[in-house]
Amino acid sequence: MKDKDFDIKGAYEKIAKKHTLPKFEKLDDEFEISFIDKEAFLVRSIRRKMNEKVIFFCRIIEGVLFPQGASYISAVENKAVTDEEKQKILKVYKRLMGYERRSLRLDTNSDDEKDAKYIKSLYKEWPAFKEVAEDFVKKLENAWNKEEETPSEGFFG
Fold first, then answer.
1. What is the pLDDT of residues 90-123, one digit of tens each?
2. Which of 12, 67, 79, 133 would bridge with 74, disulfide CB 3.0–4.6 Å?
3. How far apart are CA 39 and CA 46, in angstroms?
């Protein structure tokens, strides 16, 4: 339930001063924190919102690096990425999983100071993650634009 008259930007600016967090607009642009609708546990909620995006990218990467079974998606996308590119994205994956697990640990023992440290650390590394992820996702997208024959019967029969 949304807090009545909750102003996320105003509430954020108060905690940002206290914890020297990034500018609201920049953090919101990357992690959509303006969707947070309650002031209670705001720093924790921001950390969790950021972690949602980390998890999202981890799952996309996993589908290509560690395909499960006979998935048509994995078959198409796995061919789009070279072994060298897979090694590069694996390094990013490991860093992102480190953040994901750090956030999980913070859920067991959270306080504003620890959450703020996570927010600042992830925000600082995010541009590098994003750059590698953008190149990776372009390759996945391009894989679907190639004219290739339909995969073998195993996928449909």
1. 999 999 999 999 999 999 998 999 999 999 999 9
2. 67
3. 10
CA distances from 121 to 75, 91, 92 (A): 35, 17, 15
| Each residue's pLDDT tens digit, 5-27 | 789 999 999 999 999 999 999 99
Please give the DSSP secondary-structure letter assigned to residue 146.
S
- Residue-wise pLDDT tens digits, 104-113: 999 999 899 9
- Mean pLDDT value across the chain: 90
Signed CA dihedral, 125, 9, 49, 134: sign only: negative
H/E stretch holding 23: none
8 A C-beta contact, residue 53 and residue 119: no
Q: What is the DSSP string of 32-88?
A: -GGG----TTHHHHHHHHHHHHHHHHHHHHHHHHS--SS-HHHHHHHTTS-HHHHHH
Helices 83-108 and 42-65: angle between axes, nearest 10 degrees: 150
Chain-centroid distance of CA 102 in Å reads 14
